[in-house]
């Protein structure tokens, strides 16, 4: 039986990856930081199957201990401050959690279990103000946010540990991927949650930033399969994972609102607080290398993804409303 250690297991990707690895018969260790109110929502179905370890990305001692206890064959480093917009008001915390923490994790593996295979969650945000379209593994980086800058550091330190210490370290350059487990502040989930609330009469409007931004949006459940595939190859390497299709935020609104027979133009209010100091205008990935080398493929397309998210938000908001009614709130 193989053993995996996942950081960020309570997040969107961590929860899908843990499910995938459990299905494959792995023993799964999950690193969780201490929070005042435990957050198990994404892993509620598999909570008892995960071996929980307490640790923080910025505490090297706790990471060394996590690697020692789990003795993993594979380490998936998914934990990070992952919300781009929060990286301007919190640039130092972002650098610590999204950049330096990668070195902490690599050091823990190098010291305790150097033959473990290592996956780093890199990001298309590194391409930022893109210098070519579509973006592939060889496209130069031009990050546009403190988050993007931090991810570039995480990417290169992973490559460096591979080249310096001969570690099996891979960097997955993943384009945006979403799901019903996406955090509520990210644009897809913000929209699908608002659609559900507006449809059910508990919200009147949605306040948005730049509707012209273009993204290459896929389904997180498909993308975690690529993470696993990268660690099953003979040689470590870096791969772009994307759909190869681009849609605007405006199109996202159109698809989500029209699914419940509403017109987004009746509800969207542009609010400058959601416009970023420096924007990534477009991202479009070319994942030919992943398709050819890993045999990776997509199962869920853009419309199916947004419809799935609206359906799940409708269910959740309805059950919240029933709960409030029962409680007399
Ligand atoms: P997410 O839902 O925000 O999950 C982030 C995870 O990191 C959470 O489990 C969080 O724990 C944990 N974490 C944050 N700070 C930590 C700390 N100091 N110590 C320990 N754990 C900490 O992110 P995601 O969408 O699943 O993304 C996973 C990774 O892929 C991230 O590194 C992200 O930057 C990267 N990425 C994501 C995308 C995308 O489109 N989703 C694309 C490219 C790259 P709590 O539950 O306690 O907050
Ligand atoms: O959903 P977003 O916040 O995702 P963003 O910034 O592209 O970052 C996500 O994808 C990256 C991969 O490229 C990951 F590395 C990162 O961790 C994260 O998962 O914003 C998408 C676009 C942006 O252009 C933003 O300006 O939507 C635009 N937008 C317009 N109005 C908005 C809003 N974004 C948010 N969050 N909220 C708005 O009201």
Description:
By secondary structure, the chain is α/β, with parallel strands linked by helices. The mean pLDDT is 97. The chain folds into two domains: 3-178 and 217-241, 3-Layer(aba) Sandwich (Rossmann fold); 187-215 and 246-281 and 301-326, Alpha-Beta Complex (UDP-galactose 4-epimerase, domain 1). It has nine helices and 13 strands. The site of NADP nicotinamide-adenine-dinucleotide phosphate (NAP) has 25 residues, from α1 and β5.
Question: Helices and strands in order, then pairings?
Answer:
Layout: E1 3-7, H1 12-23, E2 27-32, E3 51-54, H2 60-70, E4 74-77, H3 91-112, E5 117-123, H4 146-165, E6 169-174, E7 177-178, H5 187-199, E8 206-208, E9 214-215, E10 218-219, H6 220-230, E11 239-241, E12 247-248, H7 249-259, E13 268-270, H8 288-294, H9 302-327
Parallel strand pairs: 1-2, 1-4, 2-3, 4-5, 5-6, 6-11, 7-10, 8-13
Antiparallel strand pairs: 9-12
Bound molecules: NADP nicotinamide-adenine-dinucleotide phosphate and ligand G4F.
NADP nicotinamide-adenine-dinucleotide phosphate (NAP) binds next to helix 1 and strand 5.
Outline:
With 329 residues, the chain is α/β, with parallel strands linked by helices. It has helices at residues 12-23, 60-70, 91-112, 146-165, 187-199, 220-230, 249-259, 288-294, 302-327, and strands spanning 3-7, 27-32, 51-54, 74-77, 117-123, 169-174, 177-178, 206-208, 214-215, 218-219, 239-241, 247-248, 268-270. NADP nicotinamide-adenine-dinucleotide phosphate binds at residues 7-8, 10-14, 33, 35, 39, 56-58, 78-82, 97, 121, 123, 174, 176-177, 183.
């Amino acid at each position: 039986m193989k053993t995996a250690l996942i950081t960020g297991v309570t997040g969107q990707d961590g929860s899908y990856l843990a499910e995938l690895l459990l299905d494959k018969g792995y023993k799964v260790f999950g690193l969780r930081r201490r929070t005042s109110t435990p957050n198990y929502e994404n892993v509620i179905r598999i909570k008892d199957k995960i071996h929980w370890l307490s640790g923080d990305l910025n505490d090297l001692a706790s990471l060394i201990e996590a690697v020692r206890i789990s003795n993993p064959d594979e380490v998936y480093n998914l934990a990070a401050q992952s919300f781009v917009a929060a990286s301007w008001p919190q640039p130092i915390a972002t650098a610590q959690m999204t950049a330096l923490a990668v070195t902490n994790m690599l050091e823990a593996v190098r010291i305790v279990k150097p033959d473990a295979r290592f996956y780093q969650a890199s990001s298309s945000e590194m391409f930022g103000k893109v210098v070519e379209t579509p973006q592939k593994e060889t496209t130069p980086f031009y990050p546009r946010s403190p988050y993007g800058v931090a991810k570039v550091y995480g990417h290169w330190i992973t490559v460096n540990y591979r080249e310096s210490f001969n570690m099996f370290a891979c960097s997955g350059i993943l384009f945006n991927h979403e799901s019903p487990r996406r955090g509520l502040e990210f644009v897809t989930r913000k929209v699908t949650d608002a659609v559900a609330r507006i449809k059910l009469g508990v919200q009147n409007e949605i306040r948005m930033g730049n509707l012209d931004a273009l993204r290459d949006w896929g389904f997180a459940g498909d993308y975690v399969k690529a993470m696993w595939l990268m660690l099953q190859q003979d040689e470590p390497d870096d791969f772009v994972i994307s759909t190869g299709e681009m849609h605007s935020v405006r199109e996202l609104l159109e698809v989500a609102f029209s699914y419940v027979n509403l017109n987004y133009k009746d509800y969207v209010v542009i609010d400058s607080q959601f416009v970023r100091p420096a924007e990534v205008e477009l991202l479009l990935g070319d994942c030919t290398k992943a398709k050819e080398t890993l045999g990776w493929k997509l199962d869920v397309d853009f419309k199916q993804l947004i419809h799935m998210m609206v359906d799940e938000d409708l269910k959740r908001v309805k059950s919240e409303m029933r709960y409030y009614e029962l409680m007399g709130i």
